[in-house]
Specification:
The structure holds 2 protein chains of 2 kinds. By secondary structure, chain A is of the alpha+beta class. Chain A is built from 5 helices and 14 strands. In chain A, helix 2 packs parallel to helix 3 and helix 3 runs parallel beside helix 5. Chain B is an alpha+beta fold. Chain B is built from 3 helices and 15 strands. The longest helix of chain B is centred in the last third of the chain and has 12 residues. The radius of gyration of chain B is 22 Å and the shape is globular. In chain B, 26% of the residues are buried. About 12% of the residues of chain B have low confidence. Classes of the chains: A alpha+beta, B alpha+beta. The interface between A and B is medium-sized, with 20 and 28 residues.
């Protein structure tokens, strides 16, 4: 059964009319982000993030592999994003839709290319053994803006994850089990968060909303994603097609994003601390 | 104490002597397997043949004349049952009519002639000619055929759900050929994904919710049994309408 098809004319007109009065369908202000709810699993590195009805699970795991010959000191960060029909019935398993490719590309740029995880710290024995960190992202429910939800889940999972402690004597590597040695957190330089804005251009005005729902993103003229960290550094700025935007508009949007990301970072830190108190990792 | 049944569970076996009436009425969620006539009262189906096909709470009512059993469950997936009213979205136009999305597994078909003539104001100055049987309607040059755009909302009722074929809906009352409240819904906003029992409750005449909401500010509403509710308010009332939408939608 396909997901509810195209929005009807009435929906399109009403959403636009309501936006012109500054009202969104779920009662939010145009530049309000849905408050994310974070849930941690028993396994280290398993995090579920809920943004309204949108739910994404991020899971981090590690294994030891041989590094690339031209980069013997670097570990790997592998990100896997596959949208299954669980998110919504219009996604096909095994076939990557356009949104999926875009989402995967943006997450890759935000997390890997921005060097959020220090890959040199993943080296165990140069040229022979390095850690390969695998980040699996599962999309459970799509009610708009899966990208932002996934980025929050991903960075929280990376910060939550602990890799097994390793002792190197010469060329001999001993990987200690979790029972004998306390596992070690990943070295994370900064925490990038994606902020997606949707634009609605009428003849005279341009309306912006932050964190669009599914209906809003279907009715919008285009989206802009800016990935920032708490230090207000722009990691990625992506605008793929859509209506043209003025310089002022882009600057305003980036400033709004920077503010929100600071709040998000605080939220994630608090959630991790609370989880750290609840689930104390120690060796007895 | 309400009993929870899962699909495949039989009806709970109460003592055979306790049932005062011999007639068994099965409501939604229960299915009587076709079996040979059993010995019980020689009446055919007995309680042993009934199994649940939906998960939910078992409901029971014995009014002396018949025993009524049904399953109450929360659902948002609509299965068409004539003569329920539904809100549909036109998804395609073809020679004989329209294909309408009513949220069921198959899109419904809406005949182009199942509209009351005056429900489309733009054609009011023409009088629809009454077609004689066998009249071949050529869509392209017929000025009297009502044309609805793809994406329009219609309030219709189910005519039939033939097996292995798509359901049929109509925007006129079959007996009187008048619109009787059905037809195109202009403007407003359709709320999708409303829980089905909630829609049924709203359609009940004794339901106080709509009256209480209407006392706050005036609005128009059309409730479809397919989990869709259409609401409309005057210009400038967007904020109130959004609050109304959240109220009607109900889910957390």
């Amino acid at each position: 059964m396909p997901r509810d098809a195209e929005p009807s004319i009435s929906e399109a007109e009403f959403v636009l009319k309501a936006l012109q009065s500054g009202v969104r369908l779920d009662g939010r202000q145009p530049l309000d982000f849905r408050t994310p709810k974070l849930r941690f699993g028993d396994q280290l590195g398993w995090v579920e993030c809920e943004l309204g009805q949108t739910r994404v699970v991020a899971q981090v795991s590690s294994e030891i592999v041989r590094p690339q010959p031209e980069r013997p000191y670097e570990g790997f960060l592998v990100i896997s994003t596959e949208i299954s029909p669980m998110a919504a019935s219009n996604y096909e398993a095994g076939r990557a839709s356009d949104e999926e490719i875009l989402l995967a590309r943006l997450l890759e740029k935000s997390l890997r290319r921005s060097e959020a995880v220090d890959r040199e710290s993943l080296c165990i024995v140069a040229g022979q053994k390095v850690w390969s960190i695998r980040l699996d992202i599962h999309f459970l429910s799509d009610e708009g803006n899966m990208l932002d939800c996934a980025s929050i889940a991903a960075i929280t999972a990376l910060r939550h994850f602990r890799k097994p402690d390793v002792t190197v004597v010469g060329e001999e590597v001993t990987v200690h089990s979790v029972a004998s040695h306390v596992p070690v957190p990943l070295a994370i330089h900064h925490s990038p968060f994606c902020q997606t804005f949707a634009f609605f251009s009428t003849s005279d005005t341009s309306l912006t909303v932050l964190d669009p729902t599914h209906l809003e993103s279907m009715l919008s003229n285009g989206t802009l994603t800016v990935t920032l960290n708490a230090q207000s550094e722009i990691c990625v700025l992506s605008k793929v097609g859509g209506a043209p935007l003025s310089v002022e508009e882009v600057m305003r949007v980036v400033n709004v994003g920077a503010e929100r990301v600071k709040a998000l970072d605080g939220l994630v830190k608090e959630a991790l601390e609370k989880e750290g108190r609840r689930n104390v990792i120690e060796v007895l | 104490m309400a009993k929870v049944l899962l699909p495949g569970d039989p009806l709970p076996s109460t003592s055979a002597a306790a049932s005062t009436s011999a007639v068994l009425h099965l409501g939604p969620g229960l299915h009587a397997a076709p079996t040979a006539v059993t010995a019980l009262n020689g009446k055919g189906k007995s309680k042993e043949d009934v199994t649940a096909v939906k998960a939910g709470l078992l409901g029971f009512h014995d009014d002396g004349k018949a025993e009524k059993w049904w399953i109450e469950s929360l659902a948002r997936r609509y299965v068409p049952h004539p003569p329920e009213p539904v809100i549909g979205i036109i998804i395609a136009r073809h020679a004989e009519g329209y294909r309408v999305d009513i949220g069921s597994s198959q899109a419904a078909s809406l005949d182009a002639l199942s509209f009351e003539a005056s429900s489309f104001l733009r054609f009011e100055k023409y009088e629809r000619p009454h077609p004689y049987p066998g009249f071949a309607r050529r869509k392209t040059d017929d000025p009297f055929t009502t044309l609805i755009q793809v994406g329009t909302l219609v309030y219709a009722h189910l005519l039939s759900t033939p097996p292995f074929s798509e359901p049929e809906i109509s925007c006129v009352d079959a007996a009187t050929q008048k619109s009787a409240g059905f037809g195109e819904l202009v403007g407003g906003f359709p709320i999708r994904g409303v829980e089905l029992n909630r829609c049924r409750a709203l359609l009940s005449p004794k339901n106080p919710i709509l009256a209480k909401l209407g006392a706050q500010f005036p609005f128009e509403v059309a409730v479809g049994m397919n989990g869709r509710i259409w609401v409309k308010a005057a210009d400038g009332e967007e904020e109130n309408l959004v609050k109304l939408i959240q109220e009607l939608r109900g889910r957390p």
